[in-house]
Amino acid sequence: MNLAAVEIKAFVPATNFELSKQFYVALGFEIPWSSENLAYVRHGNTSFLLQAFNYPEFIKNFQMHLLVENVDDWYASITASKVSERFGVRIDAPQNQPWGMRDFPLFDPSGVLWRVAQNIPTHATA
Q: I need a labelling partner for 66 at 20 to 30 A (CA). Which of 44, 57, 91, 112 fits?
């Protein structure tokens, strides 16, 4: 019996599907496949499915976590791309967290909260 898992993906909701696709491309993701209501979104070896799905109660409680090698480089790249201004989204500066991560919050155009983070020694504090 082989019960090996190969991959797990989240279905990220999008109130404005086309705008959300543009946002993720502006962040440096690629979209190798898309249909009318679903898109495969990828960055390196990470990926998710973007879905035209407009349920505000679900969206305001939906979060994604992206673990990266250098969170400060990601923050610098995202702020330099001006996605905050272009898409009217919020991004906050990186902070060290007591649970051993340095991260920053980024909201997509639908209001989905992304926490972009890197691991740091657990003795580091904000």
A: 57
Is the whole model's pTM more than 0.85, yes or no?
A: yes
Alpha helix stretches (DSSP H) within the chain: 17-26, 56-59, 71-80, 83-87
* CA atoms within 13 Å, Cβ hemisphere of 91: 24
Domain ranges across the chain: 11-119
What distance in Å separates the CA atoms of residue 1 and residue 117, rounded to the nearest whole number?
36
Superfamily of structural domain 11-119: 2,3-Dihydroxybiphenyl 1,2-Dioxygenase, domain 1 (3.10.180.10)
Does the pLDDT value for residue 74 go beyond 70?
A: yes
Q: How far apart are CA 98 and CA 88, in angstroms?
A: 30
Q: How far is the C-alpha of 86 from the C-alpha of 70, rounded, in Å?
A: 24
